[in-house]
Amino acid sequence: MSTETMTYRDAIKLAIAEEMRRDDNVVLLGEDVGEYGGAFGASVGLLEEFGEKRIKDTPISESAIVGTATGAALAGMRPICELMFMDFVTIAMDQLVNQAAKLRYMFGGKAKVPMVLRLPGGSGTGAAAQHSQSLEAWLCHVPGLMVVYASTPAEAKGLLKSAIRNDNPICFIEHKLLYKTEGEVPVDEEYTIELKKSFVKKEGTDVTIVSYGAMLHKVEEAAKYFEGAGISLEIIDPVTLYPMDMEPIIESVKKTGRLIIVHEAAKTGGLGGEISARIAESEAFDYLDAPIIRLGGLDVPIPYNRNLEKAVVPSEEAIKEAVLKVLNR
Amino acid sequence: MATEIIIPKLGMDMEQGIFEKWLIAEGEYIKKGEPLFEMVTDKVNMEVEAETDGYLIYTNVEEGEILPVFTVIGYLGKQGESIPEEESLTDENEKDISFQLQQPIRRETEEIKEETYVSVDAVVSLNDKVRATPAARKMARDTNTDLHFITGSGPSGRVQLNDVKTYIIYAEKKKEINKQQIEEKNTLEDILITPPAKKLVEARNISILEIIGTGPEGRITYNDVSGYINEHPEYKEQKEHDGVRISPLAYRMATENNIDIHLIKGSGSKGKIVKKDVINAMENSELNAFKEKIPEVSDKQKGSRTVQMTHRQKIIAKRMIESVEDHPTVTFTTEIDMTNAISLRQKLRDSISYEYNVKMTYTDVILYNTARVLKEIPVINGKYTDQGILYHDYVNMGLAIGMEAGLIVPVIKKIDTMSLGEIAKNRQQVVQDVKENNIMVDSLTGSTFTVSNLGMYDITNFNSIINGDDSAILSVGAIKERPWVVDSVLMVRPVMTVSITVDHRIIDGLQSAKFLSRLKELLENPEIVE
To answer: What is the pLDDT of residues B472-526, one digit of tens each?
Structure first.
């Protein structure tokens, strides 16, 4: 498969463009997605190619954006919404949780809501407490929604294309720090990545680490560090956070006997607790040789101060310490 | 079916015990509940009782041997019964491990913070209470291994998967060795040997497997044995070692290494010196030095003699050195007018005697008030650690008791929650237990502070060495009538001198002074007692 080096942002744009060319029902709407090219530049140039009818700048109302998209999806279109910051999904919650997520079920499968909500999340950009949150656990608590988190450019393209083609409302989370990261991305128009599937990013024997989004990269760095010390980490990215494919995680824990979950979202009520509990309920429990460790953000709003902002989310050092702790070293 | 005799686990942190001696001879009959052997932990001497009626048919331990808990040291069974290998294997497989101890032991569990008495049999069924990871549990379950036998290497002694794996390998090996020994024993029983030959073989400690019998049906005769001895000079001259019982190999090693065999303590049967003892002696440089200082002169001529220390005495000696090395100490002393404390004791003595059936002593009054002061100045009840100062929400009071056999410090746990009467009751109980050698291992650990009272021996003033993990120790002298000035008037008052020795790393002079002056205040003004 031929690939091109491109940024995470361009991979997202490519996915949108390809799907819009393939299917006339795919439209993009959001604040400043047209002329301005999106808050993070993920739709630069799309207005020129697809025109105002399919690339819609909207008023500053997330509720209206998601409500409009839900209606359009019910009427047979495949809207993609960009919410400028994931934090603003709070404003669209009624439309998203009470409408979009429920309709397919309540109409007995006769109606469907094929829609993608692109949500730039996470901290690290100095955008302070109202523009830096990681709210994936909230969204995972709503049956009827799917939650997908891409951590590399190639995944961003493959997963977004699958999400656009899927018939359910999907929250597609993009980490703001990842937009500028580069990677090899397949340019094949039929390149997609299966949803509801966890991926083993690196095989290992000693400790299983489950992580996603920007944190995954810190975990990969820690794994490289330990490689030299003869400690082998197995890294799993669930990718689709809800519904999560637990099988590879269970199999991995049965192999390593040790589990660490790393995410940027606040630890309390975070997905780490869910994954940990599912492992305790699974057959992998009997293979655990150390208590499960969750590394999550501190239970505080994300600070504006850069140093404090770094300090409230798990660091590479914290990951290394956790690895040594589960190994009793 | 023969029943295993094992080294029992008598406390949470007990990992090994020292086998002292059998209390009955091999081949003798014993009834269930009668004392079978004596052992020493690092805290107490104790007699272990027989679990079942039976003959002591097989022993596998030397006196003074240090063994991990649950080591099989012998078997009880029917007269003449040997221990068939299938039987011992089945024993393992069925986990039919019989504990030889029926008396109650103390055991702390995570869930039950209150200490409870459980019988050892009950401990076995409490398998779930062992701190172990799920993986370790699964493996133990799959392999029919009892987690109680495994020492955990994880945090707080948690048993990890690897511990179980290691244990299983160890157990397999041990089973192998037992099997070999049993086979050997069976073979030995099959070998025919004349009584005089047998006597000679036993006297010289020769393995009869190596001797070729020339008598009828291959019977080993006296001549066969003496011929063997002639070919193997190391078995000669067995008895010519100044009456010291020593094996030929040990004798050769001792001679080659210039070690006086009179200075080696034998750990073999009837005090016989074996190879291990010589190795121990060689490692003991002090002994070598000692030997060099008094080369020729016999002890008797000098009017001095060396008496081997008991294990307990050795442990105490080691603890003393450790304490002095670990704690930079400083001592503070004050004098306390005991007039009011004495009248308080007289006032309360009868009612406490009535309620608790115990005679209240000055020690109890001192313990009670000391506990109160410790709650007020918690650092004195704390402990220096590399991570920081460890504070306790409770006071576990050690009480130093001098015995002929050495110093013993039983611990009255959570004394800060007790009334004066309860303290008296508990104090009397531990003192009695110590005197009757009945003390439980767990009653000797976990102190946070210790009081040493030599008042009854008419000692007025002394310093003590800090005990165990404590950070301070209170030395209490005798109450004596002394000239005492009260409000510029010279009077005669009963006065007691107390000293506190503290770990100066975490406790400074001010805190020590506060401690003593508050203790003085409480004892001189007992009305402060609620």
So the answer is: 999 999 998 889 888 888 888 999 999 999 999 999 999 999 999 999 999 988 7
Q: How does pLDDT run across A249-284, given as a tens digit for each residue? A: 999 999 999 999 999 999 999 999 999 999 999 999
- Give yes or no: B458 in active site: no
Spell out which residues of chain A touch residue B154, defining contact as CB-CB under 8 Å. Answer: 290, 328
Q: Which residue has the tokens 């989004």?
A: A213
Q: List, as one string, the DSSP characters of B104-148.
A: -EEE--SS--S-EEE-HHHHHHTGGGS-B-HHHHHHHHHTT--GG
Query: What confidence tens digit (pLDDT) does each residue in B312-327 have?
Result: 777 788 888 888 888 8
As given in the structure block, the two tokens for residue B442 are: 């767990």
Closest residue by Cα to residue A70 from A131, A20, A144: A144
**Helix, strand, coil % in chain B, rounded to nearest 5:** 45, 20, 35
Q: What is the DSSP string of B327-356?
A: --EEEEEEEEE-HHHHHHHHHHHHHHHHHH
Interface check for A281 against chain B (CB to CB < 8 A): the answer is no
**CA distance, residue A324 to nearest chain B CA (Å):** 12
From chain A, the residues in CB contact with B161 under 8 A are: 257, 289
Give the C-alpha separation, B504 to B377, whole Å.
15
Give B113 or A181, the one with higher predicted confidence.
A181
Q: Name the residue of chain B whose CA is nearest to A292's CA.
A: B133
ipTM of this predicted structure: 0.76
Distance of CA A297 to the CA centre of its chain: 16
Residue B301 confidence (pLDDT)? 56
d(CA A201, CA A221): 13
